[in-house]
Every structure is written in C-alpha cells, then in structure tokens.
C-alpha cells in the first residue's frame, strides 16, 4: 500500500456511506449540522482532506472497493457538502495496489501534515484499513473498536 495525496472535483469521488435524508434532517434539527457544513464549505472550501481508498483493501468493511474507483471512507459529510456547491475535495488516498501514480506519494509526516489547515490529533496506519486519522474524540472510539475485535 502507498499513501498519496490528491484533489478532485466532488463528482469524481464516490461516497462510501453518504448521509441519508433522515440523518441530514436529524442532525439539522439537533445541531443545524449540515446547514452549517454547507455554509462553511461554501465560505472556506474543504480545509482538511478526507480519507479515501482505492484497490482491494483487506478489511471486509472496504470490500466494495475495487479497481481504480476512489471511495471516501472518512469525510462523507464533507463530500456531500462539496457535491452541493460543486467544489474540489482534497483527499489522502490509501492506494492498495500502488498504481495511482497521478497522485503525489506521501513519504513522511511533515509532508502529510502540510496538507491540513488543522492537523489531526492522531494518525494510525493499519495493515487492513490503511491510514486513518482524526480529532481527539475519535481516538477513544478507535481504541474501543480495536479492543472489541
């Protein structure tokens, strides 16, 4: 697997788990989440890359990934917003076949961090899921998932 960076228009990427209309309504009712997200993406663009994967990932959760499709595995809400306003989406790519040469290979953490307006609090490279990262509150969720497996 090779870790890469790229930018594509939102309509060139595939949502792994797009938000459902019910989820959008629920989160807007409780937190105005999707309305705020649309406003922020329209005002500032996508500031931090989403996580994408391409190729045959070993993790069964990613079994829908094949060929040269680029599937968003983390950041589907940002992709939803980008599709609504037709903007570009930066992504960190888990290139499982190592053949997506058109995207820049990431070779160290300094380079990785340079793609973020707000660098993630944690970064992990898992042999089955690839590179993952996120805010501090997700670290506990990741820890819990690993211990339950």
Describe the structure in your own words.
- The protein is an alpha/beta fold.
- Helices cover 34% and strands 26% of the residues.
- The protein is built from five helices and eight strands; from the N terminus they run E-E-H-H-E-E-H-E-E-H-E-E-H.
- A six-stranded mixed sheet has the order 2-4-3-5-1-6. A two-stranded antiparallel ribbon has the order 7-8.
- Strand 7 (122-126) and strand 8 form a beta hairpin.
- The longest helix is centred in the C-terminal third of the chain and has 13 residues, at 136-148.
- The protein is globular and about 40 Å long.
- The chain starts with a strand and ends with a helix.
- The mean pLDDT is 85.
Structural features:
about 150 residues, 8 strands, alpha/beta
Order of helices and strands: EEHHEEHEEHEEH
The radius of gyration computed from the alpha-carbon positions, rounded to a whole number of angstroms, is 15 Å
Strand order in space, largest sheet: 2-4-3-5-1-6
* End-to-end distance: 23 Å
Integer average pLDDT = 85
Going by helix content, strand content and strand pairing, the class is alpha/beta
Unreliable stretches (pLDDT < 50, length at least 5) are none
Biggest β-sheet description: 6 strands, mixed
Measured by DSSP, the beta-strand proportion falls in: 25-35%
* Shape assignment: globular
- Count of helical regions: 5
> Total strand count, please?
8
Q: Considering DSSP H and I runs of 4 or more, what fraction of the residues is helical?
A: 25-40%
């Amino acid at each position: 697997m090779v870790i890469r960076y790229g930018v594509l228009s939102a309509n060139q990427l595939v949502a792994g788990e797009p938000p459902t209309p019910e989820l959008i309504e629920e989160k807007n009712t409780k937190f105005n989440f999707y309305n705020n997200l649309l406003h922020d993406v329209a005002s500032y663009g996508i500031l931090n890359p989403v996580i994408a994967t391409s190729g045959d990932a070993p993790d069964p959760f990613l079994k829908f990934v094949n060929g040269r499709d680029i599937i968003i595995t983390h950041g589907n809400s940002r992709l939803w917003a980008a599709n609504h306003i037709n903007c570009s989406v930066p992504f960190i790519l888990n290139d499982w076949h190592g053949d997506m040469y058109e995207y820049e290979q990431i070779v160290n953490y300094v380079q990785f961090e340079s793609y973020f307006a707000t660098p993630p609090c944690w970064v992990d490279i898992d042999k089955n899921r690839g590179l993952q990262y996120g805010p501090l509150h997700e670290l506990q969720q990741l820890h819990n998932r690993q211990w339950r497996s």
